From TrEMBL:
It comes from the Bacteria. The keyword DNA-binding does not apply. InterPro entries: Ptyr_pPase (IPR023485), Ptyr_pPase_sf (IPR036196). Residues 2-128 form the Phosphotyrosine protein phosphatase I domain. This is Phosphotyrosine protein phosphatase I domain-containing protein. Pfam families: LMWPc. Coiled coil: none annotated. Keywords: Arsenical resistance. PANTHER family: ARSENATE REDUCTASE. Gene3D superfamilies: 3.40.50.2300. It comes from Oceanisphaera sediminis. SUPFAM superfamilies: Phosphotyrosine protein phosphatases I (SSF52788). Signal peptide: none annotated.
Length: 137
C-alpha cells in the first residue's frame, strides 16, 4: 500500500481536502494522511464542498506535523509554498509540490473550485502511480 502525506500551512483547507479525496477515490491502494505546519480548525466550507460531492468527512481533523514524526511516506505532497521546505524534510521516496491559493475557501464557489482542482490532480496521481505498478505492455 502506498503511503501518502499531504502537507500545507494550516491543515485547514487543501491538505484535508486532498486526504479525504484520495481516501474516497482509492483507499484500497493508499494509506493517506495530512498535516500542517501550524494547524487550525478545518474550514467548514471545505467540509461542505466535500460533502456535497458525497465524499465522507467523518474522522477528518486538523493535525500538526508531530502526528507524522518518524514516519516514512512513499509520497509527500506540499500544497502551498509555505509548506514546501518543510515537506522536503519528511522522509519519503518522492516529493511533489501542488500549490493552491490560500484564500480558496472565501466562498462556497471557491471551495467547490479548489475541491475540483485537487480532485483532478488526485485522479492523475492515481493514474500515474497505477501505471508504474502495472506495466501496460
Amino acid at each position: 500500500m502506498t503511503r501518502v502525506l499531504f502537507v500545507c500551512h494550516s491543515n485547514a483547507v487543501c491538505s484535508p481536502i486532498a486526504e479525504a479525496l484520495l481516501k474516497h477515490f482509492a483507499a484500497d491502494r493508499y494509506q493517506v494522511m495530512s498535516a500542517g505546519i501550524q494547524p487550525t480548525e478545518i474550514e467548514p466550507r471545505a467540509l461542505d464542498a466535500l460533502q456535497r460531492l458525497g465524499v465522507g468527512t467523518e474522522g477528518l481533523f486538523s493535525k500538526g506535523l508531530d502526528a507524522v514524526e518518524e514516519q516514512y511516506f512513499d509520497i509527500v505532497i506540499s500544497l502551498c509554498e509555505q509548506a514546501e521546505q518543510v515537506a522536503r524534510t519528511i522522509p519519503a521516496s518522492q516529493l511533489m509540490a501542488w500549490h493552491f491559493d490560500g484564500a480558496c475557501c472565501d466562498s462556497p464557489q471557491l471551495a467547490a473550485k479548489v475541491v475540483h482542482e485537487i480532485f483532478e490532480r488526485i485522479k492523475l496521481l492515481v493514474l500515474v502511480q497505477d501505471r508504474q505498478v502495472k506495466s501496460l505492455w
